[in-house]
Amino acid sequence: MKSEEEQAQVGMTKDQWGVVRNELKKTLGTSHYTSWIEPLVFQDLKDGVCTFGVPTTFIGNYVSQNFADQIIYQLNRSGESVKRLAFDVANVATAPTASAVPPPALEERFTFDRFVVGKPNELAYAAAKRVAEGGPVSFNPLFLYGGVGLGKTHLMHAIAHELRQRQPELNVLYISAEKFMYEFVRAIRDNTMMDFKHLFRSVDVLMVDDVQFIAGKSSTQEEFFHTFNSLIDDQKQIIISGDRAPGEIKDLEDRIKSRLQCGLVVDLHPTDYELRLGILQSKLTSHQNTDPDVVVADGVLEFLAHRISTNVRVLEGALTRLFAFSSLVGREITLELAQDCLADILRISERKVTVEEIQRKVSEYYSIRLSDMIGPKRKRDYARPRQVAMWFCKQMTSRSLPEIGRRFGGRDHTTVIHGVRRIEDLRIKDSQLSDDLENLRRQLEE
Predict the structure, then answer these.
(1) How far is it, in rounded angstroms, from Cα 215 to Cα 247?
(2) 433: which residues sit within 8 A by CB, 6+ positions away?
(3) Which tens digits make up the pLDDT trace of 355-386?
(4) Residues 183 and 147: beta-carbon distance below 8 Å
(5) What does the pLDDT look like over 96-112, one tens digit per residue?
(6) Per-residue pLDDT, 108
(7) DSSP string covering 208-268, please?
(8) β-strand 172-176 against 264-267: which pairing, if any?
(9) Is 186 helix (H, G, I), strand (E, B) or coil?
(10) Residue 29 — φ and ψ, nearest 5°?
């Protein structure tokens, strides 16, 4: 039975702990705060020792090794006298479920409402929304893959955000594959494997970003494999992201590839012009909500959507730079200003690949002679690679349609238009063609 003085001290410290938590959130950032500080439950402060309830020994050890000094500093700033921290796993019942979903710093940017949907990503968006509804789904795991800046991480965060809004009682754990490996190695070193297994196998939803990172790391893959199986057996939802399809990840064990392919595998295709323009328009609208005085001249967004085509992050960053420059100098964002302000980005984004290089790469990829691909033969074995090459010429060079046609045996520009449209239609429906286009794009951008 605590004395009245002790009870007063504990009550006062609980109030102060709320203030300290807010300071730690500012200092450590939202990600670290949500993962490691939020699960702590204040219990007692006695003789300079502040005790917290934690869900697992693993979390207690991690906080002790990484954040103890900062917690003690903030507690002492609040008027307490704290020399060290202690962690009590026995009081798990009063501790909130551990969660490692790190909401991004600009959380409102990473919701479904802020995700611009177009043909290249509509299936991935629909699948992510379905999982985020929280009910049973016919596919598990959901595997999202695509190149840099195509929206994988945005959708992962959007799923986590939606799940928290709909079912806050769910234990949702979001972690990068690199962090998974890091914690696995730490658990081996500190002899806390049971805590590690408990943390990752007791969740309701496991989200692992950039799974390709564990490729070639046999021990980590072994643990990931067993964690995956345990959650699937318990009918828990798994969402994974990677930079390519499971079967294409080099040095990833076949049994893991097989598990990842047993659910729904969805490709976020490279953006097309319409989607890039939609993203820019959405970003402009959002910015004008806070800065209604910003003026963007006609044609600027269209220019950016045409010229910056490989990476959405670079595209959004370019527009952000224009906003900042316009605000600082008090000028309208014109096409001339954009060309001057973004000269470095535009140089890097300039399509340097040639029509000849595209023709050579495509013919090699499909194992046909270059002369057959650009010649008059209309057999499907030659016609489809020819259309693929035309599509890449349109996407990756500044050549006009008539000039592209001339490079393909003197064909009319309408033939090029037909070929490009045919590939645009098929790449959404034909997964094999989609994979071919992605593989060829990587080769051409090397």
Answers:
(1) 12
(2) 388, 423, 426, 427
(3) 899 999 999 999 999 888 888 878 888 899 99
(4) no
(5) 333 444 443 375 568 89
(6) 57
(7) EE-GGGGTT-HHHHHHHHHHHHHHHHTT-EEEEEESS-GGG-TT--HHHHHHHTTSEEEE-
(8) unpaired
(9) helix
(10) 95, 160
